[in-house]
Amino acid sequence: MKRVAILMYHQVEVARPAGRFVCHAATFARQMAWLRASGVALVSVADVARAARGEADIAAGAVAVSFDDGYAGVIEAALPALERHAIPATLFAVAGRLGGRDDWQGGGAALLDASGLRALQARGVEIGSHALSHVRLSGLGDAALEAELQHSRARLAEVLGRPVELLAYPYGDCDARVIAQARAVGYLGACSTRSGFNVDGVDPFALRRIDIDGRDGLHTFRRKVMFGTNRWTMRDEARYFGSRLWLRLSGRRQGGKR
């Protein structure tokens, strides 16, 4: 597995203005159209986890799309673009807050209820766990940690009628103990918020993701996908392409001396 990217979104909305964790539906649609037109392989997070476990093979440069928290707006604002472009997606739901509102972003946005999750699953979206109550897992005692991971998985499986294989750590907060517990309760793999590509040797329980800011223009989005970083700047781009040009010219000069 080489240079596989998992994109991380939160809210996608039709009416709300763009913000750090809010992507406008029109922006999201343009990004999905570009992904499909780019020719990269489009895969699920489960595909990436299986490849990291050595159980499957996926193409270099593949991209997976994920959503954290389980916001209700995903159905209206994101699903049409995903279906139009036949793009797999994974949504991580907070199992103890289904049908409620978030209190971790400060906006009190609506979360999907059980019927909403089932509707997404029926239309091809993979559902994973974002733990039980969206707390920082590394600070919990052993019993509370097991409950967050095991009970969330069991509750979502009951809602969906099938096993839940994937986990995304709330806030990306995980350490060796949290990872060991995620393995122990039976997940296939888990996503962090650490930036970068997933490459050979990546821990399937510490998959990297690229954070898509709702204010990212298409140029920034393309660069994040191409270079596997959350904080790509124009200076980075100039340095990258400058080094590529120098290597190309240097190779030509050396070739001319032979």
Automatic annotation (TrEMBL):
InterPro entries linked: Glyco_hydro/deAcase_b/a-brl, NODB_dom, Polysacch_Deacetylase
What is the annotated localization of this protein?
Secreted
- PANTHER family tied to this protein: POLY-BETA-1,6-N-ACETYL-D-GLUCOSAMINE N-DEACETYLASE, PTHR34216
Origin species: Marichromatium bheemlicum
Q: Which UniProt keywords apply?
A: Signal
Task: Supply the name of the protein.
Answer: Polysaccharide deacetylase family protein
- Chain ranges of the NodB homology domain: 61-258
